[in-house]
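Input for the complex:
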Amino acid sequence: MTSLNRSYKIQTLAKDLKLKSSDKPLESILAFCEQRVRRFLKEFSRCNRPSGLLDILSAKLQIRFEIFRSDPELLAIKKRYVVAGEKRFATLEQEFPADVFGITFRRLSRKPWEPEYVSVIDCRGDKQYRANYTKWHELGHLLVLTDQLRISFSRTFCTQDLKDPEESLIDVIAGHFAFWPPLFAGLATGAISFDRIEEIRLSHCPEASKQSAVLGIVKAWRGPSALLEARLALKRNEQRMAAQMGFGFKQQPQATLRVSNVTVNDAAVEAGVRMPRNWRVPEKSVIYRVFHEGQDESAEEDLSWWETSSGTRLPKMQVNVQARRTLNTVQALITLGNS
Amino acid sequence: MATTGDRIKEVRESIRMTQDELADKAKLSKGFISDVENGKRGISAENLVRLANALGASMDYLAKGETQTSHQRKPIEIPQELSTAAEQLNLTYSQTLELLETHNSVIARRSARQLDPFTVDQWKKLHVAIQKVFNPEK
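Predicted:
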């Protein structure tokens, strides 16, 4: 979040959206989107599910989603839009390599009744699990679309930190509205657990992937909650040296269990919970045990167990930690000790 | 003056969809759609969204008979690579602008990596691909 606030591109976007200059452009942009969405919803008497919100935003932002699950379906979409005179669709089948999930086009040749945008979403193979989130991502782009062409281009061959700041911002917007807290108000309360999150997903937003639901519902939860993901990784400086093959004759460093991703909801931020990325997981934490032994477990812990090799510690805070092993990672739900 | 019902019927017929099919897709009853099309009933914003999404139509058009073009891109410079490609392909100025506009109609792409800017060769390939599909006899 902080690094996005420092990004020149995000500051420029905030300026293009005519937002008051601030040292927190990310928050200003989110507030701008929130205001737009609430304005759209004024016409509607009810909207209580994410799928309903998605339909409303698609209609208001004038976007149509075209989903394909196979190569023939992709070609059928291409044919339909080429016949309609959309020239950019001439190369559509070449536009979806493994790392592209969705593309949004402005229609240049449309009938008066057709929406202004069409978003083509790839649901082939494993990409199907990201399809719902990709729709939200594409809507996120339209929520902050300005006159400026800003689609991200890179001139670097560096393989680290390739993600464009605007794409990261759009992910924040997409994640926020895909699990918009007002739609979870009566559900995301009380004691949080992985089972409860899955129950809410199945009843309220079955179209969302399990992974996005865990992240989104933790964010939407009313009480202080955080989701931590840990995996084997090197220290940051070791990562940099490894990328440059800089160890020479030195012994290669060993990867240890470290925080790879953290999501802290607003209530937890307010309560002072912080969990820096890439910190080493303490050996006495249940997270460490679950990673090495594989059995789901929970425990009462203290955040002050967490410390860097230079001795910096997190402040003392009693927390409850529920940890579960996934394929290469361990996920942990962290709540305040008495919640 | 055309009503919302008239426009729903106009769009539905232009894409050759029956009331049954529309009812099925929008999860509304055929009777309701028939009543709306014939001006016997009004329609809520919620149901209009359902019909718009089922028809692949703009909600604004169904409601008001017009769609707003929300964002007009400001004039932008022709990239050097496109300029070179246009010279090599003997494109006129308007053809060059059209190729640029076509390229820029991609407004978002969700990908795990950033894109490199188009090279001269990629501009040429895009032009050739468009020609192949839209003017195959040339």
